[in-house]
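>> received
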Amino acid sequence: MNEVKAIFEPQKVVLMGSSRIREKIGMASPQLFRNVIYNMKKFFCGKTYVLDVDGKAGHNLNELSEIPELAVVMLPPKQSTVQMEKCAKIGVKALVMITGGYKNQQRQQLLKLKREYGIRILGPNTVMGVINTANGLNTTFERDVMPKKGNIAVVSQSGGVGACILDWACFCWRQNRCGRC
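>> returned
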């Protein structure tokens, strides 16, 4: 469990995205970035830093007062690989790569970072991100959606299936009619 603790139980998280970049294929967009920022600031119990690569908000990665355990990257592949390398070099332990569209060469760069720095990588194309109801970690793009804290874990390779399960879990909790929640 220690190998993935930085992904599910970080104390400090940096959110890396753009207030300008809009990409149809890989999902990078200002709206995605804003939604993840909103969710983290509303639910997460730890420290959240925001890095807008366009300089509109937040911090420069090298100027953070603390090294985050987790970086959530919501940028197109070209910009992501630059930021991922910076994260690895300063000691970030894990990356959640929300966006997709990576070419084989860019995936090879991810593997190289993993081998060289020992950084854990979830993704790319994790679309739904990660939720931990115990600490409020919520890197999903669905704004203001958080299931009730409980004792069930769900892992889904499919973003569509993950979104359906998340919606079902939140609906049952709100409605409390299905008898399963």
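>> Residues 58 and 162 are 30 Å apart (CA to CA).
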